[in-house]
């Protein structure tokens, strides 16, 4: 199934969650984490179950990445150690996402790499420096997660900018994937900054709106890549077929 057909049910569930939570505002209501989990969970199930091919590994990896994200959504909404457990789930999801496109990468974009390292270093200094002393294990998990997400940003951006063995530079599907990871990076950076007590205006709306859009864009990029690769792998018409067309 084309990912564009999944936009309606997915964003409808996001809108329902927005309405139920009065603007993505966390509450003590037990339904909050369920409404938060539902959009990405349903998206992962639909993308896998309604797809035309169950044997395609890229489709499976993308679905598992979404599923891990849905579990992370649930974990991160829990009051006790939810952020750390959520980071573990999202890290697993990013590993699955990397499986969908790392084989297509040619050259790494060095300027993008340095920009990502610089931004990550600033965020690390502002948020995790003190936590590293007080909570070393939790901070180590967050650092590993940040590294995986930064890797996704750099690799997806490099694929979009430079292309790869089977991808031309600046392809639309790779742009969607890159934008998805950039929004994911923005969402998680805002989350950790807000979590350590630094005031962020409309933090909940910014964190979750960018997150939900990011998940969908990453899926769209993977889906379009899958469609284009299937088209490129289709066998050319035989000479007899060409002759019959010419006779007609």
UniProtKB/TrEMBL annotation:
Q: Does the keyword Membrane apply?
A: yes
The reply to whether Metal-binding figures as a keyword in the UniProt entry is: no
> What keywords tag this UniProt record?
Membrane, Signal, Transmembrane, Transmembrane helix
Q: Which residues form a coiled coil?
A: none
Family membership: Belongs to the TMEM86 family.
Q: Where in the cell is it found?
A: Membrane
- How is it placed in the membrane, per its record? Multi-pass membrane protein
Q: Which residues form the signal peptide?
A: 1-23
Q: Which residues cross the membrane?
A: 33-49, 83-100, 112-134, 140-163, 175-200, 206-226
Single GO MF annotation: alkenylglycerophosphocholine hydrolase activity
Q: What is this protein called?
A: lysoplasmalogenase
Recorded GO CC terms: membrane
Reactions the enzyme catalyzes: a 1-O-(1Z-alkenyl)-sn-glycero-3-phosphoethanolamine + H2O = a 2,3-saturated aldehyde + sn-glycero-3-phosphoethanolamine; a 1-O-(1Z-alkenyl)-sn-glycero-3-phosphocholine + H2O = a 2,3-saturated aldehyde + sn-glycerol 3-phosphocholine
């Amino acid at each position: 199934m084309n990912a564009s057909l999944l936009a309606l049910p997915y964003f409808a569930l996001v809108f329902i969650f927005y309405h139920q939570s009065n603007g993505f505002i966390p509450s003590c209501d037990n339904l909050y984490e369920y409404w938060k989990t539902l959009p990405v969970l349903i998206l992962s199930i639909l993308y896998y179950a309604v797809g035309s091919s169950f044997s395609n590994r890229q489709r499976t990896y993308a679905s598992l990445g979404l599923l891990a994200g849905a579990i992370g959504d649930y974990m991160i909404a829990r009051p006790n150690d939810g952020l750390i457990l959520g980071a573990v789930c999202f890290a697993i999801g990013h590993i699955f996402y990397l499986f969908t496109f790392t084989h297509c990468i040619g050259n790494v974009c060095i300027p993008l790499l340095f920009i990502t390292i610089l931004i990550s270093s600033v965020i690390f200094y502002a948020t995790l420096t003190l936590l590293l002393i007080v909570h070393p294990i939790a901070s180590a998990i967050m650092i590993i997660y940040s590294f995986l997400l930064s890797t996704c940003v750099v690799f997806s951006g490099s694929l979009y900018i430079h292309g790869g063995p089977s991808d031309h530079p600046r392809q639309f599907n790779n742009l969607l994937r890159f934008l998805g990871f950039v929004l994911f990076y923005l969402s998680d950076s805002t989350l950790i900054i807000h979590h350590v007590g630094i005031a962020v205006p409309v933090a909940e709306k910014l964190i979750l709106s960018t997150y939900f859009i990011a998940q969908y864009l990453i899926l769209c990029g993977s889906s379009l890549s899958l469609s284009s690769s299937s088209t490129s792998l289709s066998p050319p018409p035989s000479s007899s077929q060409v002759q019959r067309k010419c006779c007609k």
